Amino acid sequence: MFLLAGGCSRVPRIIVLEDPLTADEHVELGVAYERKGDPALARREYEAALRKDGGSFQARVNLGNIYLAGKDYSKAREEYLKALELRPGNAEATNNLAWTAVLSGERIDEALARMEAVVSAPGGRNATLLDTLGVLRMHANKPEEAEEAFALAEKYCIEQDAAQGGSANQAYRCTEEVRGEIGEHRRELRKRFPSPAPQPPLIR
Question: Do 39 and 70 belong together in one domain?
Answer without folding.
Answer: yes
